[in-house]
Structure formats: structure tokens, C-alpha cells
Design goal:
212 residues, alpha/beta, four-stranded antiparallel sheet, 9 strands, globular, P-loop_NTPase, ATP hydrolysis activity
């Protein structure tokens, strides 16, 4: 279980959110809902260490962390809205990069895990392609594989259906529900209400909370 307690973020005098609290249960999909531009992406970036919070605490399975503690942020895998794949690396190389450089696993071990993830996500034939050769839906699945390769406690998605067509969106839905069956906890930021209805166990009204 992940508990976010009293999280606050501001830029100068501008408060983005203050004393925000929420809970993500094990194996649950929690959708954070609200219109664009109100700070949902900032929340995700704060939880993954890309932005620094002014205050807050995160409790992971009973152990407390400061929100900016790398020991906590490393447990959350982020799927970027614009994918953020390295254009000069193949699909396999994009997925292998962090396990080999951060976790220091061998190439053989990294390749084996990457092969398993590619098979699970229907990307085996794309292993040696470059990002420019992929569709938007395929890039999204590579982003998911890259996050899963680090064995995170939580997968966090930033607007995962943005720019995707109906078929690709359905693929994302299927993948998220399949991961849920495997017990993967997932946090998704979205303004796509029909998508949220399909995947979420619980919803969090971000706009309502930040206006309290």
C-alpha cells in the first residue's frame, strides 16, 4: 500500500497543491482526474523525483519516506505522456538502459527480462526498431516495458491515452488490466473520463482537492 500524506508543491508564491493526501492499495488502479493545467503532471513528477516538493511524506508498505527520498522515488516507474524514448537507441536498448546502468545487471540478464516484457506486450517483432519506426501505441507499450524492467512498486502514467487512436487506447486499457491481474499497483493521471471508467478501481478528483 502507498500512502501519500500532506504533499505540498509551489513555484515561488504560486501554490500548485497543498496538504494533498491519497492512498493507493496494492494491486489497485487509482485514476487522478481533472482538466489539463491544474497540476496533475506536477504531482506525478514530484512523486517520481523529477520535481521537488516543499513538504510531504510517502508511506510504502508501512515504511515512511520523505517525498523526495530517492529510496522512495525509485520505487515508482513513470510512463511519460510524450514517451521520452531515446531516439538513437533501439526498443531493446531503451528498455535495457536503466537496468544495466542503474541496477548493474548483466546484458544477458537484461536481454532475458526485456524479451519477456516484449513478448508480454506484443512487441517482440519491434525489438530492434528505433522509436521513429513505431506507432504511438507501440511507443506507449515500450514506455510501459521500460518502466516494468526496473521492478517498481508502482507504475505511474501521465495522460497515457493522449494522442492515441481508439485502437491504441484499447491496447493500453488491456495492458493495464492485465498488469492489475498480476498485482501491479498503478496510478494514472488523466482527463479522459471514458478511459478512467474502464480501468480505475478508485478515482481522485484532483481539481476538487486542490481547491479546498
Amino acid at each position: 500500500m502507498i500512502e501519500i500524506k500532506d504533499l505540498s508543491k509551489q513555484y515561488g508564491d504560486k501554490v500548485i497543491f497543498k496538504d494533498l493526501s491519497m492512498t493507493l492499495k496494492d494491486g489497485e488502479i487509482l485514476a487522478i482526474l481533472g482538466p489539463s493545467g491544474i497540476g496533475k503532471t506536477t504531482l506525478i513528477k514530484t512523486l517520481t523525483g523529477l520535481e521537488e516538493a516543499q513538504s510531504g511524506q510517502v508511506v510504502v508498505d508501512g515504511e515512511s519516506y520523505a517525498v523526495s527520498d530517492p529510496a522512495m522515488t525509485s520505487q515508482i516507474g513513470l510512463i511519460f505522456q510524450d514517451f521520452n524514448l531515446f531516439p538513437h537507441l533501439t526498443v531493446r536498448e531503451n528498455i535495457n538502459l536503466a537496468p544495466m546502468n542503474v541496477k548493474k545487471v548483466s546484458r544477458v540478464e537484461a536481454d532475458k527480462k526485456t524479451d519477456d516484457l516484449l513478448a508480454k506486450l506484443g512487441l517482440t517483432e519491434q525489438a530492434d526498431l528505433y522509436p521513429y519506426q513505431l506507432s504511438g501505441g507501440q511507443k506507449q507499450r515500450v514506455g510501459i516495458a521500460r518502466a516494468l524492467a526496473m521492478d517498481p512498486q508502482v507504475i505511474a502514467y501521465d495522460e497515457p491515452t493522449s494522442g492515441l487512436d481508439e485502437k491504441a487506447t484499447e491496447q493500453v486499457v488491456d495492458i493495464m488490466l492485465a498488469l492489475k491481474k498480476e498485482g501491479v499497483s498503478q496510478l494514472v493521471v488523466t482527463h479522459d473520463l471514458p478511459f478512467a471508467d474502464k480501468v480505475a478501481d478508485e478515482t481522485f478528483d484532483f481539481e476538487k482537492e486542490v481547491q479546498k
